[in-house]
Amino acid sequence: MWKHYTGRVTGMRLDGDPKVPATRWWNHLYLLLFVWREITILEVPEGAAPFRVGYKDDFGRAKCRTRPVYSRRFAVSHGHEPCTFFAVLYDGTEVPLRIVERTSIDRKPELVPLV
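RESULT FIELD:
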């Protein structure tokens, strides 16, 4: 589940996938389940887990996942639009992110969760 996030974060901006249609309110679920095939695997520093993952759109609206991530690496999928992803500890401290790889969902390692 994703909830609105009001904390201040910088995050890491990732380009969207120009091969997929633009995201609209009426096609978001369809795109998420069947069209968004490009992912980026991100990593937090050693010892930073557990943390929560969030994103900000181009309008500055932020959402944060309520379920924590316990592994250092996790994957995020790409819509058409660019998006800023971030990771925060329970106290709101932002955790730095590092890009490991941008690939397709078919090549995602089994132990890397898709958030």
